[in-house]
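Box 3.1 A note on notation
Throughout this textbook, protein chains are presented in two layers. The first layer is the amino acid sequence; the second is a token string describing backbone geometry. Keep the layers aligned when reading.
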Amino acid sequence: MKMFNKINIQPQFERYTGMLHEYVLSLRDIRNVGLLVFTVIVLLVSWSGVKSIQTNYGLEKQIAELRQEVAVQKLKNTNLALQNQYLGTSQYLDVTARENLGLAKPGETELLVPEKVALAHTVKQPGATSTSAAVPKRPFWQRNFQEWINFFLHRDTAKS
């Protein structure tokens, strides 16, 4: 019970109350109050600035995504317009008539070659090797390292 003795606690309590009293009296000084108000205002303005920067970044990101979508849609529209033009040409009609209906121009004869015969007389092209044979199998640690690099650089992992 010596620890909670009133005699031992009283001087410390008086010291802390004296310090608290001095702090409260210092708040009466207009300079200290002005500094406190200025600090609060600066913090609030900084916080709102950071929030507006964050909002602007998000909006810019959305704008960039929408612009990319617009560009893709324009390319699709252009592709469809070109396809419509091709479908209206006489060349398309000739190709369709030959492939689907088996028709030919007057004087032409159609030759049907079996697939086995056609493949037996073809020459393999030197650049026509499969892509899996061209890419050597790398050790696990190299593949793992490359996948991490692709992840951090936002690369498409299907390409590598």
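DSSP finds six helices and no strands in the chain. The radius of gyration is 40 Å.
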